[in-house]
Design brief:
- With about 425 residues, the chain is α+β, with helices and mostly antiparallel strands.
- Helix content is about 40%, strand content about 10%.
- The strands form two sheets. A four-stranded antiparallel sheet has the order 1-2-3-4.
- The two termini are about 50 Å apart.
- Belongs to the 'phage' integrase family.
- This is Integrase.
Length: about 425
């Protein structure tokens, strides 16, 4: 390909039949610099400027924008550029003014949603402004998955097949990206990620319909992939192996905050960010509880066992409001995943995540004979019935928390103090420690 110029177009030959009796078709020459811009040469010798593109529905299209001779190359290039820019925005130059679909793109609606939600003008399912943590996850799914696959599409042209096709692309990893640099994680695909992204997109469209931004929700009726429930839990022998790994890691200089945080997650069943984000002001030592001003299920008071409370009280006093502070900055520790990965590698444990620790807590509670209602209260699950709404911190619930935490602590400590560094002992420089801000 070459750049289209007057000299180049003048030199283009008229197409001729390769064999006698074969119908002669037009030929094309495409511009090297502006993709989709070209010249069509007819058997009659007529030369015309054309553009070639795909419609918002994905159909290939080609249209003449002017005849060579009546229009200069510079004029044709300018018009072609304008039309191809419109195509990139989800418009179709072949649509007539009467039939052209007017509307906004998926990217524009997503940007509108984020701006309105951040300003507190969009309410979530709890009839309250959407949480910052939820918005952060929504923004991630929008930027990583939704915009690359559907961002330029006009919402009015979307079909169920388009959205389910995007879901399939996410599931097979089309939008996956490796980890960039030393910070942050990799962008992954999978059925669970795909289904949650479609749920986010459906919710965004529903908000836009309710507030009059668009006429209908094109994601309504989309069949979301069924995610595979994670049933992984640590058996008693695996808890003991993890405890031995924590003990040896502490002696080798593993990050003490990371070890303490992992132990705390096991002793409480807290979600990862709940456990890491516990502030000193939230601990009520008299009733043995942590009062969360906000969680996934709203504000909560969560009872914890004596072993878990002792662990918190053993943490060194610092200027940070958190029990598990970051090594620098004002936030809490965030490197627990990498510490856990190193421990599990040492203990030869597979497929263990911080959420596995939560499952393990619940499983030990069930093994000890506690009811689903009691376990749900210990885990802070949202109330699903009238009875559960009246669960509060009483002796029975406190006893359950003490017994579960004590049982797990006992298994962990079979081979030493399992990564519970002494407050007075000097800690060596952590080996391979991940110092999250």
């Amino acid at each position: 390909m070459e750049k289209l110029t007057k000299r180049f177009i003048d030199a283009l030959e008229v197409p001729k039949p390769s064999k006698v009796g074969v119908k002669v078709r037009e030929s094309f020459a495409w511009d090297r610099e502006l993709r989709g811009f070209g010249v069509q040469v007819m058997p009659s010798g007529l030369k015309s400027f054309v553009i070639q593109y795909r419609s918002p529905e994905g159909r290939p299209r080609r249209t003449v924008i002017g005849r060579y001779g009546l229009m200069t190359v510079e004029e044709a290039r300018r018009i072609a550029h304008e039309k191809l820019v419109a195509v990139s925005k989800g418009l179709d130059p072949l649509d007539s003014p009467d039939s052209k679909v007017k509307g906004i793109t998926v990217a524009e609606v997503c940007d509108w949603y984020l701006a309105e939600a951040e300003a507190g003008r969009i309410l979530g399912r709890s009839r309250r402004p959407i949480k910052a943590s939820t918005l952060a996850m929504d923004k991630s799914r929008i930027e990583v998955h939704i915009k690359p696959l559907l961002g330029r599409r006009l919402i009015a042209t979307l079909k169920l097949g388009d959205i389910e096709g995007a879901q399939a692309d996410i599931a097979v990893g089309k939008t996956s990206k490796p980890r960039a640099g030393s910070r942050g994680g990799a962008t992954t695909g999978g059925e669970g990620v795909a289904a949650r992204t479609m749920s986010t997109l459906h919710a965004i469209f529903e908000h836009a319909v309710r507030l009059g931004k668009i006429d209908s929700n094109p994601a309504r009726g989309v069949r979301r992939l069924a995610g595979k429930a994670r049933e992984r839990r640590l058996s008693r022998s695996e808890i003991a192996r993890l405890g031995r790994a924590m003990h040896f890691a502490a002696e080798a200089g593993e990050h003490p905050t990371g070890l303490a945080a992992i132990r705390f997650l096991l002793l409480t069943g807290f979600r990862r960010m709940e456990g890491l984000g516990v502030k000193r002001l939230w601990l009520n030592t008299e009733e043995g509880s942590v009062r969360f001003p906000d969680t996934k299920s709203g504000s909560q008071t969560r009872v914890i066992g004596r072993a878990a409370m002792d662990l918190l009280l053993e943490q060194p006093s610092t200027a940070s409001p958190y029990f598990f502070p970051a090594d620098w900055g004002e936030g809490h520790f965030i490197g627990v995943v990498r510490v856990l990965d190193r421990l599990c590698s040492s203990a030869k444990l597979d497929d263990v995540t911080p959420h596995t620790l939560r499952h393990t807590f619940a499983s030990v509670a069930a093994d000890l004979g506690f009811s689903e209602l009691t376990i749900a209260a210990l885990l802070g699950h949202a109330a699903r019935g009238v009875t559960q709404r009246y669960i509060h911190i009483d002796e029975a619930l406190r006893l359950a928390a003490d017994k579960v935490a004590g049982e797990i602590a006992s298994i962990l400590d079979q081979s030493g103090r399992a990564g519970r560094p002494s407050r007075s002992g000097h800690q060596a420089e952590p080996v391979g420690a991940d110092r999250g801000p």
